[in-house]
């Protein structure tokens, strides 16, 4: 019963049930710009972490090759 009353109230008051500017597609709104900035920041963190992993594994490969060369000459 409470759900029905809430749904009816939300439908009768369109300002309360309205979506945010991001959902409406207004790309120049401050909330849309903040959302885009947040997504780019998270992508930057992910790319940074993946780059660190790749660099570490490249370092390990170079060290393994160097150790293999020194063992061949001995």
Write the layout of secondary structure elements.
Elements: H1 2-12, H2 14-17, H3 21-24, H4 30-73
Question: What is this entry, summarized?
Answer:
This protein is an all-alpha fold and 74 residues long. The chain has helices at residues 2-12, 14-17, 21-24, 30-73.
Provide structural commentary:
This protein is mostly helical. It has one domain (2-73). The chain has four helices and no strands. It has helices at 2-12, 14-17, 21-24, 30-73. The longest helix is centred in the last third of the chain and has 44 residues, at 30-73. It starts with a helix and ends with a helix.
* Coarse shape: rod-shaped
**Quantity of strands, as a count:** 0
Specify the helix fraction band. Answer: over 70%
| Mean pLDDT metric | 85
Which segments are poorly predicted (pLDDT under 50) over 5 or more consecutive residues? none
Largest sheet: none
Count of runs of 4 or more consecutive helical residues: 4
Radius of gyration, taken over Cα atoms and rounded to an integer in Å: 27 Å
Overall number of structural domains: 1
**Separation of termini?**
84 Å
List the helices and strands in order: HHHH
The percentage of residues in β strands lies in under 5%
Keywords:
single chain, 74 residues, mainly alpha, rod-shaped
């Amino acid at each position: 019963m409470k759900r029905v009353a809430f749904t009816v109230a939300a439908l009768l008051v369109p300002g309360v049930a309205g979506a945010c500017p991001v959902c409406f597609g207004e790309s120049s709104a401050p909330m849309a710009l903040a959302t885009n900035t947040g997504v780019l920041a998270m992508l930057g963190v992910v790319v940074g972490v993946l780059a660190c992993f790749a660099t570490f594994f490249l370092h390990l490969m170079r060290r393994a090759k160097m150790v293999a060369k020194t063992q061949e000459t001995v």
